[in-house]
Specification:
Layout lengths: L1 H6 L3 E5 L13 E2 L12 H19 L4 E7 L1 E3 L4 H9 L15 E4 L7 E3 H13 L5 E5 L7 H8 L2 E4 L2 H13 L8 H8 L2 E2 L2 H7 L11
Parallel strand pairs: 1-3, 2-9, 3-7, 4-6, 5-8
């Protein structure tokens, strides 16, 4: 950030995340004014929140630089399916088994509700943020519909099974400690803690509209 200011770069677009937000509601949407204190104990979230504080200081020190922060939900695309499968299913889950009809159940855990967006649509949001001189501040970036266990189960032709939060967290922790899964349990806290975002500002001020969305059953 200091290098941007020293070089006289006129605009800075930062890749923030929904993970920067403090714990929030899943039954209503929050706009960009929701606190960005992160989710305690989740390293990724804490780091994203700290960078937002750095940006606050940078904006005060370099008022001539136009600063934009994009806060996307989970970013997916078909071409990255193998890597995404390893992150969520671990290295020992074969790709051919991750298909509708072969996954027996989806955990139905309270607050397991989240938003996703295609990488190409995120790229378009960054393009607009760079070229639109009126763009400034933070923008939530996510596609419809919001995903929950029932919708995911319908997509995969699976059934939901009630799993308490502590059981889901404990299973994730054991799998990570046994090196069966690359993602530590704090990501469960992140998924359950982050709020559902309102993307109205990006649509109205940037003219951003995602062309792709999570598949519908």
């Amino acid at each position: 950030f200091h290098a941007v200011g020293a070089a006289g770069v006129p605009r800075l677009v930062y890749a923030s995340s929904v993970g920067a937000y403090s714990p929030g509601p899943k039954d209503r949407r929050v706009d960009e004014s929701w606190p960005t204190g992160g989710i305690e104990g989740a390293y990724y979230s804490v780091q994203k929140a700290e960078v937002e504080r750095c940006l606050d200081r940078f904006e005060a020190e370099a008022p001539d630089v136009r600063v934009v922060r994009l806060r996307p939900g989970l970013i997916f695309k078909r071409d990255a399916a193998a890597g995404i499968r390893r992150l969520f299913g671990g290295p020992f889950l074969p790709n051919p088994l991750v298909r509708p009809g072969l996954i027996p159940f989806i955990p139905d855990t309270e607050r397991l509700v989240f938003q996703a967006v295609h990488s190409y649509d995120v790229g378009e949001a960054y393009r607009i943020a760079v070229v639109n001189d009126d763009a400034h501040g933070a923008y939530n970036i996510a596609a419809e519909p919001v995903l929950d266990p029932n919708r995911i189960a319908a997509l995969l032709r699976a059934r939901t099974v009630r799993v308490p939060r502590r059981v889901l967290h404990g299973a994730a922790d054991v799998a990570w400690r046994l090196r069966l899964h690359p993602t530590e349990a704090s990501w469960v806290d992140l998924a359950l803690g982050t709020p559902i975002m309102d993307v109205a500002r990006a649509r109205e001020e940037l003219g951003w509209n995602p062309r792709r969305g999570p598949a519908r059953p």
